[in-house]
Design a protein that fits this description.
Elements lengths: L40 H8 L1 H6 L3 H6 L11 H21 L9 E2 L1 H14 L7 H6 L3 E2 L11 E2 L7 H17 L1 H15 L3 H23 L1 H4 L2 H8 L17 E2 L18 H10 L5 H10 L5 H12 L3 H8 L2 H41 L26 H13 L6
Parallel strand pairs: 1-4
Antiparallel strand pairs: 2-3
Helix pairs in contact: 1-4, 4-5, 7-9, 8-9, 9-16, 11-16, 12-14, 16-17
Bound molecules: protoporphyrin IX containing FE.
Protoporphyrin IX containing FE binds next to helix 7, helix 16 and helix 17.
Keywords: Dioxygenase, Heme, Immunity, Iron, Metal-binding, Oxidoreductase, Tryptophan catabolism
Organism: Cyanistes caeruleus
InterPro entries: Indolamine_dOase (IPR000898), Trp/Indoleamine_2_3_dOase-like (IPR037217)
């Protein structure tokens, strides 16, 4: 757009607060609520006991006896997010309680209707997403203590014990490590508009540093998550009812729609962080991978999705760096792309350990003549052996995304 007249308005930076993005916590919900108002006691009582109710196969009958509560007494985004988190966990437990061979076709009305209402109010899908599982599911043990794993706890949990806690909390720490990078996006775009190359250079250095810190945070997965527990116990509860052979027809939300609805399961592919970094750096993924990632944006809180879209529509950083001919800027830009490629390679190694190696071991165990049929829970699911909980074909997808990231480098 041409500047009109000679009055030069200072360009507006991308104000994070406009998108419910926190300067301190990024996309994490700052200090989430841990209690719902008293009328929602029946939901909280069930949610607090989920691992035991699932292990004893009682969750479905407890849910069927639950009173049908209206969502109208929920006030503000914090209460809505906690309600969504609670109802999402109860729903995943309800659907997967008996493993992939004992799924249900109908989510009962007393759960489906309020879940639908809360989802509509937040603009989130009626299924567990990254926004519930991680962004809204944390509290500090000591409210004045640091945001470190020893001082963190989840609010609601599912089977998987300490490994589930670790999986959620390490992912949270990756989100937290991204915060300086999210702030750097806003600073970089402001600096381009003001032709302030010094600030732009600093912002790119901060972004590269944040991506490296995310990789360091991701390393903690090894210390806190047991691959066998992840594969055999945890993963099924994150699975959705879209592109999943275990639930090919989706799920009927009784009282909401007579037709089954299909939704992808929870995945960090729904985190807004890498979507925003990709958009800033102008990374172009191949068509089918990009289509999957774009679909994952429907699972983000709408203000976060709007943030990613705003970065996408902003002035092109890559074009600016190219046309500046500035070697220092180009090197800083490339450090960001290289850090992002490394993060994705490291993530692939994690996925190999927690899914493909774990799946091979589970197959070998199944093949042993001594292997008993075993209880439904704890029996590794086979429907998603080669697919992610989001429903992607894991390795072709992840490698394609990593390779197209690398191709985003600017050559000298
Ligand atoms: C045990 C740990 C993890 C496993 C097994 C895992 C597995 C997967 C899988 C299978 C996918 C493919 C998409 C799908 O269908 O779900 C995926 C995508 C993705 N995961 Fe993870 N993941 C793990 C931890 C994390 C963490 C902590 C993050 C950081 C926030 C993360 C970020 C992503 C992103 C951003 C994608 C989309 C692809 C990309 O942009 O590179 N993952 N993950």
């Amino acid at each position: 757009m041409q500047a009109s007249g000679d009055t030069k308005e200072p360009p507006l930076p991308l104000a994070l607060s406009r998108f419910q993005v926190s300067e301190e916590f990024g996309f994490l919900l700052p200090d989430p609520l841990t209690e719902l108002p008293a009328p929602y006691g029946p939901w909280m009582d069930i949610a607090r006991e989920l691992p035991q109710l699932i292990a004893s196969h009682q969750l479905r009958s407890r849910v069927r006896q639950m009173p049908q509560l209206s969502s109208q007494h929920l006030r503000g985004r914090e209460e809505l997010h906690l309600a969504h988190l609670v109802l999402s966990f109860i729903t995943m437990g309800y659907v997967w309680q008996e493993g992939e061979e004992g799924t249900v076709q109908v989510l009962p009305r007393n759960l489906a209707v309020p879940y639908w209402e809360v989802s509509q109010a937040l603009g989130l899908p009626p299924i567990l997403s990254h926004a519930d599982f991680v962004l809204a599911n944390w509290r500090r043990k000591d409210p004045n203590g640091p945001l470190e794993i020893e001082n963190l706890d989840t609010i609601i949990t599912l089977p998987g014990g300490e490994s589930l806690q670790g999986f959620i909390l390490v992912t949270l720490l990756v989100e937290k490590a991204a915060v300086p990078g999210i702030k750097a996006i806003s600073r970089a775009l402001g600096a381009i508009l003001q032709c302030d190359e010094e600030t732009l250079h600093r912002a790119l250095e901060e972004l590269a540093g944040a991506i490296k810190a995310m990789r360091e945070a991701l390393r903690q997965m090894h210390d806190h998550v047991d691959p066998e527990v992840f594969y055999s116990e945890i993963r099924i509860f994150l699975s959705g009812w879209k592109d999943n052979p275990a639930m090919p027809h989706g799920l009927i939300y009784e009282g909401v729609s007579p037709e089954p609805l299909a939704y992808s399961g929870g995945s960090a592919a729904q985190s807004s962080v890498l979507h925003a970094f990709d958009e800033l750096l102008g990374i172009c993924h191949r068509q089918d991978s990009a289509a999957f990632l774009h679909r994952m944006r429907d699972y983000m809180p709408p203000p976060h999705r709007a943030f990613v879209e705003e970065v996408r529509g902003a002035v092109s950083l890559k074009q600016h760096v190219l046309s500046s001919g500035d070697a220092r800027l180009r090197a800083a830009f490339n450090r960001c792309v290289s850090a992002l490629t490394d993060f994705r390679s490291y993530h692939i190694s994690i996925v190999t350990k927690y899914i493909s190696t774990a799946a091979a071991k589970a197959r070998a165990r199944r093949a042993q003549p001594s292997a008993s049929a075993g209880p439904a829970v704890g029996k590794p699911p086979s429907a998603l052996e080669a697919k992610g909980t989001g429903g992607s074909h894991i390795f072709s997808f992840l490698k394609s995304i990593r390779d197209t990231t690398r191709e985003g480098m600017i050559s000298a």
